[in-house]
Amino acid sequence: MTSLSPGLILILGALAVPLLRGQARNLYMLALPVLGLASVLLLEPGSHWQLSVLGIDLEIVRVDRLSTIFGIIFCIAAALGVLYSLHDQDPVQQVAGLIYAGAAIGAVFAGDLVTLFVFWELTAIASVFLIWARRSERAYRAGMRYLIIQVGSGVLLLAGAILHFDATGSLVFGELGLGSLGTNLIFLAFGIKCAFPLLHNWLEDAYPEATVSGTVMLSAFTTKLAVYSLARGFPGTEILIYIGVSMTAFPIFYAVIENDLRRVLAYSLNNQLGFMVAGIGVGSQLALNGTAAHAFCHIIYKALLFMSMGAVLHRTGTIKGSELGGLYKSMPWTAGFCIVGAASISAFPLFSGFVSKSLILSAIAEEGYFVPWLILLFASAGVFHHSGIKIPFFAFFAHDSGIRVKEAPANMLAAMAIAAFLCIGIGVYPAPLYALLPFDVDYQPYTAEHVVTQLQLLLFSALAFTWLMRTGLYPPELRSVNLDSDWIYRRALPRLIHAGAEIFKPLEMGLRQAGLRAVYAVILRTERHHGPTGILGRTWTTGDTVMWVAILLGVYLILFFL
């Protein structure tokens, strides 16, 4: 049976967007992710579209419970992103956003590595326009760096797929595991897109430079596609536990001192990815369920937080914590939705983050990874610190900046309201989410132990924040540039190359002059024989020409008879 990939509904449908105007365009764009979602829900498990190209068997649509849950949440995220951006009639963003979402949806249903590569690269190419659409020099430069890194990860994926095919004769995208050069390259490609430590800077560099609507879309797809790919290809790979806990811990410090609140959320995104990666590393059914559930919830509450900060940026023109404060008076609905997102990411009971993060923490504890479990607890407290408190506090409360603006546009509020409703709904009644998970679930998040432990953790974090603020030890919100590991390739490496060039400049000049002298000598020698006065450049008489022709013919005949 052949079924169209749900992602193609959005990709092909996006091409018609510029042809429409006004409400017709808005309704059409909203209909595309809804149709995509309907298509996902109608797909039965199994293989639905196979092709043979140049002797290679491709599986365009392969459906199972893991791909279905990611397909559902990607369609929901696309619908929220479209609704949130309706006030901005920019066809570049609208077309790019739909193609980007469609490519991510297509990728999670890819049954082979070649199909995955095609959609993988399409996400990179389409998403960069969401950054460039801000039309500033900073956005252009950040977009170029983002594109190079994302396309580079695709090249690694393709190289790994070719080597894997050469070694095994198979391109099936299933459990790959580490061990061969091909699968190691694929793992690295997934790690770049998932923002592993030291490979993460593209995220904090690019997302805050994208447009208000673009950042909401970016937060949903790229990194979660990588999480899906790791869960598909490398479940139970133990090194992912330690990579994951590292991802949860180090962004906390950057998020605390960062002044740009959208960059704080980018670091927070990196932190939340760490929980999912650690769950994949454990690899048990409970852990993989936790990863899928946390990705589902994270896409919604992270989008909600980026939406609220985007609304602030849209109305005030700034997102610096040092310049904001007191906005709850002007934007009460946005402040309320932001608090819901903050409670969800902090895993407050009755909010979505609690019912998904509990699965991962329980799985890690059950498998005996005590130290990683402790680090994840510390990271949970840090999340509440920088995303649960810092974001709403400095944007809407703290000191009154005196900024008075209108509330966010109606479409923005509607998108935030739906996301907030889902955050609370999933938190209060997680059974529908659990029913979508890759494996059957027998788990109760609301036990006295879970609730009390989590409340103690949150209370401790709140007390620490209050104490630091009252004693003046909390890092103040200042205009500043925080150095991350991207300093290595953006500043240190170019300076090192420049310094090396200065040191080796005499040698380079000597080699260049020697090369020029060699070329000049060749030219002189050539001119000596082929120039106007050279022996081969002279005009011969008819008799000399005939004589040389006869000699050459004679030599040819002798060689022929020999």
Ends apart, CA distance between termini: 70 Å
* Low-confidence spans: none
- Number of E-type strands: 2
Helices and strands, in order, run as HHEEHHHHHHHHHHHHHHHHHHH
Strand order of the largest sheet: 1-2
Assign the structural class, choosing from mainly alpha, mainly beta, alpha/beta, alpha+beta, or little secondary structure. Answer: mainly alpha
Question: Rg from C-alpha positions?
Answer: 30 Å
Looking at the structure, what is the overall shape? globular
Q: Helicity level, as a percent range?
A: over 70%
Give the strand content. Answer: under 5%
Largest sheet: 2 strands, antiparallel
Helix tally equals 21
Mean pLDDT: 91
Provide an overview of this structure.
- The chain has 562 residues and is an all-alpha fold.
- The protein is 71% helix and 3% strand.
- It has 21 helices and two strands.
- Strands 1-2 form a two-stranded antiparallel sheet.
- Helix 3 (65-84) runs antiparallel to helix 16 (410-428) and helix 13 (332-345) runs antiparallel to helix 15.
- The longest helix has 32 residues, at 137-168.
- The N and C termini lie far apart (70 Å).
- The model has no long low-confidence stretch (mean pLDDT 91).
